[in-house]
Every structure is written in structure tokens, then in C-alpha cells.
Amino acid sequence: MSMRHEDSQASPITAGYVRRSTRMQLDNFSREAQMRGMTDECQHRSLPAPIFYEDDESSARGEQIAKRPQFKKLLDDVAAGRVQIVMVHSLDRWSRNVMVTLQSFRILSRNGTAFISLSENIDYTSAEGRLQLTILAAFAAYFSDSLAKHTSKGKKERAAQGLHNGDTPFGYVDTGPKTPPEHDPREFPGLRMIGELRMQGMEGEHIADTVNAAGYRTGSKRFGDRLFTKDTINAIVRNEFYAAFAPGDDRGTIQYQEQRYRGQHPAAFTYEEWERIRTGSRINYNAPHRAEQARRIYEFAGYIADIRCGLTLRCRGGHKYCYYKDVAKTRQLPCPAGGFLQVRVDLVHQQFGTLLTGLTLPLHWREEIGRKMLEAAQKLGIDSASIEREKERLKLKRKRTLKQHREGYINDEELRAEIASIELTLHELEASEADGLRLEDILHVMEQLPGMAALWECATPVERREMVALLLEPGGLLYDLERQMIAAIKPRPVFLPLLLLIGEGVEYEETTRTLFMSQWRRSN
User: Fold this and answer.
1) Residue 17: closest CA among 80, 62, 68
2) pLDDT digits 0-9 by tens, 206-253
3) How many other CB atoms are there within 10 angstroms of residue 147's CB atom?
């Protein structure tokens, strides 16, 4: 398990986190304003210049960490002890989601990292700062929810007016925020080519090859120009935006929340042509095969990935065998292994069962795990006995507070404030374990491991999938398709201590929390 680095005597390292959400913020130099404010604050506090972590075009409400790589990297650097102070221009640049805010600040608190928000004057190291943080985070979440409702109203009104929401579709050019898009003379012939080939019944993959060979490219603000794939072709021929709203109409269609509106933009295909395109799509839609796939349970769907490119493998049914297939080539993505290899489902099933069977628990594994957890907690400066005493004190305080309320010494508002403060402190103490893990949780899941190995072969596909989900992180079975073998696994954090204790046949990479198979490492 990763341990916090000891504080050095050198000046603390300050990390400045910057995030902008819209193009307007970029034009108004919000990025430079945030950076300048944090740099000036560091100078005022006699701190070294900050190291900036910057995320672009991120949603404040969705808070998907995968879409905020620098946010995740900052938290990883905090956990590794490489950052001592985190600074932001305002709290909403950090997060507008209460749970994300509290979880991220738990990481900062656990590693003794200070937090400074210039606009709200927050200092997380103080009790007042923690209370202020919770209140402001709740307001930020409320604001984001309200903004989402207003945005939804605005989008519905635009649709009712016949105006498109979102990026301008392929084949069209933007003419302004309140005017409809028009045909793009450069891309529109390519759009017509896609529709005509689909009317002929051509498959999406062949259409993509033809359009790419003709020099057309699909593009977006996020990814720029990219090659067409089967998926992008299918998305285009299912987009009602291109279809005439009604027979004989030359205007397109706007869809919003399952409702159709007559668009102001010119249609790309007549009503009759669009019906032929839909017919071509149905011809290429292998419904019986898809239905059979839907009935089959793939134990490792979403959990098996290519070790070479990191892409999650897709499930593919065949006449005789089923496969996990790399689709990097289909998606026009680079892959050192070629992006087209596959492995039989039954082979992965057998290899993972062998891996489980090989995980033999040591005789005194409970005592050993407890000892290692205690050592980790001590290195992190966590005193388990003091924590338990504080938890008991807070529980008694909660009882006294409820009694004072019943006897009329405090009113309802004072009761809510006091109970909220106690519950928040208890929540933080519950999380004050080594790497956020509790010994009882680890012991509970470890006792299930021998049962998994014994039941793997006789379990149903649904039960095996539940075992996989319990043991592995999503994308956590890293497979070498060239050598047809398991290369590594990324276990759930609660399983990691025991797997490290067993240790035979695996090599641990702490930075990625990945266990590599020694046999695979020797062959590479």
C-alpha cells in the first residue's frame, strides 16, 4: 500500500488547480485570471510559484473524474506526498458536487494537505474552514442543479423554435446562435454519399472506408478531425436532424426529449429518402444475433482490457464460440497489437479460475493483515485507539444533545446544527483508516476469497460476474491478446492487502496499483 511521504524541510509545494467550462471563459481569459490570482497569493504568502494543474471543457455537474485527468493527477500527487498546499480561485472551480468535494477533501485531510480558496477565503485545516466548506459546497451543488434546470428549459425552447442544440452536425456549417445551420459546401457531398450508400444497403464499416478514401473526416471541438468508423456512420444515419420533417417539406427535424419539431434548417434528405435509409439500416441490423447476445451473460464484460492499448474488449458471439475482441482498429485508434485480435470467452474463464485457485491464504493471514494495517496507520500518523475514544465521546455527545432538545434546553435549529456537526466529524473519523480502508471490511471480503475459488466452475454466469465485480476494478483484467494470457489485474482496494501478502507469482506496481503476473513479465 502507498504511504504518505514524510514532510521535508524545504518550502512546501503549492499546486494551483485551474478549470474552465466554456468557450466564453477562454475568450475572457478566465484561465490567465485564475493563474495570476494564485501566483500573486503565493508571492503574498512568501511561497514558491505554484505548479498548475489544468482541465479544459469539463462539466461542473457530471464530475466524472475520467474527464478531469489533471484533477485526478493532483489528488494522486497529494496522496503521494508531492503536494503540501492546494490552491484554487474559487470553490466551484474545484467541484460543485458535495460528495466529490467531501471525498476529495478527505484525501487532503488524510495527507495533511492545506487547501486555499481565494474567493471564499477557505482554510481547510481549521474547524471553521470545514464547516464553511460544507455550506459553500451545498450552495454550489444547488446552483449547478438550478442551472441545469434552466438550461433544459432553454434547450426545449430552442427545439420548439426549430433550432438545433449541441455541436453542428456533419455536413452543416454554423451561422450563429439564433439562426439555423446551413449546408456546408465542403462536407455536404460526403453526407449525401453516406446516405446514398446506406440506401443501397451497404454496411457501416464499408461506408466508413469509402468516405475516408474520398478524403472526408468527422470532427468535433473535443477531438478535432478523425476518420469515420462504423459507429460514427451508424450515428449519422440514425440522426433525425438530416430528415425532412414531413413528406414534401424541405425543412429538417429537431428532436428533444422524445418530441419532434419542424426545424428551420434545410433537410439533407427528403422524407422518402430517409425512409429508404432507415430500411437500409434495418437490413444491416442483425436483430436475431443481437437478441442472442443480449441473453448471454459475459462474466468479464467491462472488466477485460487489452494490456497493449488499455482499451476495454468487446463481447462478440459466434456460431460456435464467443469472444472478447479488441476493436481499436474498428474505432480507428492506435494499438501496438494491431487492434483486431480476440480471445475465446471459455479460455479467459478457465485462466481466471486457475488464477483464483492459486490464491492460497496463509495460515495466520488475519493476524498478518491486522499487523500490516496497524503499521500503515501508524506511518500515516493515525492513532486507532484515540480515534475509537473520540468516536465514543461523540456518540455520547449526540445522546446528550438529543436529551437537551427533548427537555427544551435547545431549539430545533440548534439541534440540527449540532447533530450535523457531530455526524460530519464521525464520518471523517470512520474514514481515518490506512488508505481509506477499514480492517473489518478487509477481513470480511477476504473470507469470501476461498469460496470464490471453490465455486468458480460450478457457479452460474451471473454469479461469476458478481465475483468478478467484487474482486476487480472496471477494466481490471489486463489481457495479452498476442500471447493469449492474463498479463495483470487491478483488484479492488479492499482486496489489495491480502493479494500483496500472498505475493507469489505477482509483481506489484504501486503507481498504478496493478499486480502483474510474473510469468507474463518474464516473457516481456
Assistant:
1) 68
2) 899 899 888 898 876 666 778 898 888 989 999 999 999 999 999 999
3) 13
Q: How far apart are CA 478 and CA 468, in angstroms?
A: 13
* Cα–Cα distance, 397 to 419 (Å, whole number): 9
Strand, coil or helix: 382: coil
Tell me the three state secondary structure of residue 281.
helix
Q: Is 235 exposed, middle or buried (0-12, 13-18, 19+ CB in 10 A)?
A: middle
Q: Which residue has the higher pLDDT, 154 or 218?
A: 218
- Terminal alpha carbon distance of the chain: 25
Alpha carbons 179 and 207: distance in angstroms, whole number: 31
Q: What angle do CA 304, 310, 315 make, to 5 degrees?
A: 35
- The Cα 143–Cα 151 span in angstroms is 12
pTM, two decimals, is 0.45
Closest CA to 51 of 16, 86, 12: 16
What span, in angstroms and rounded, lies between the C-alpha atoms of 138 and 131? 11
Rounded distance between C-alpha atoms, residue 392 and residue 401, angstroms: 14
- Least confident among 284-298, 389-403, 493-507: 284-298
Residue 176 falls in which region: left (phi positive, over 0), alpha (psi -120 to 50) or beta: left
Mean pLDDT of all residues in the chain?
78
Report residue 197 CA to chain centroid gap.
37
DSSP structure string for 60-112: TTT--GGG-HHHHHHHHHHHTT--SEEEESSHHHH-S-HHHHHHHHHHHHHTT
- 453 vs 439: CA distance, rounded Å: 22
* Element containing residue 436 per DSSP (H, E): none
> Is it the case that residue 361 has pLDDT exceeding 70?
no
Which of 60-74, 333-347, 364-378 shows the lowest per-residue confidence on average (mean pLDDT)? 364-378
For residue 434, the model assigns a pLDDT of 43
Question: pLDDT per residue over 38-53, tens digit each?
Answer: 999 899 888 889 999 9
Strands 14-20 and 85-88: parallel
C-alpha cell at 360: 492460497
Rg over alpha carbons for the chain, rounded to the nearest Å, is 28
